[in-house]
Each structure stands twice: as C-alpha cells, then as structure tokens.
Amino acid sequence: MVLVGPNLQHAWLTHKCQCKEIFEVTIQFHRDLFDEKLLKRNQLCYIRTMFEKSNRGISFSRDTIEK
Q: How many whole angstroms separate alpha carbon 67 and alpha carbon 45?
C-alpha cells in the first residue's frame, strides 16, 4: 500500500508475479477535496501530516496494511 502525492512519478512492476491474491486498487483524491480550513482542525492534524509527507511518497509496512 502506498500513498503518492501530486506530480510524483510512479509505476508498478509485477516482476512476472502470478499470485492471484495480489491486486491493485487505485483511489485518486482531487486536490480540492479537503479544504485547508478543514485540514487545520486539531482532529485532522495526522491526516494533514500524512498528505504533506505523500509529496515524497509513502510506503506502508505489511503490519500496517494488515491492520
């Protein structure tokens, strides 16, 4: 599972994987989905930080994905 920010080049390689248990789901957020006023609320500080870090890309650990 990854979170890729805007204008960050990316590509997925399967390396000839034939496993049927691996699949891709892509969710794309429009830049204006969450306005700055909403993201500055204390309750969303972790979400705001995650979006900021996504500008460089985030790869989540297997443990986080499974949770």
A: 21
- Domain boundaries, position 39: 1-8+32-67
Q: Supply the DSSP string of 17-51, one letter for each residue.
A: ---TT---------TTSS-HHHHTSGGGHHHHHHH
pLDDT of 31-53, one tens digit each?
A: 788 888 888 899 998 988 988 89
User: Over the Cα atoms of the chain, what is R_g?
Assistant: 15
Q: Does residue 17 form part of some domain?
A: no
Asked if residue 21 belongs to a domain, the reply is no
Domains: count for the chain: 1
Do residues 34 and 49 touch, judged by C-beta distance below 8 A? no
Reduced to 3 states (helix: H, G, I; strand: E, B; else coil), residue 46 is: helix
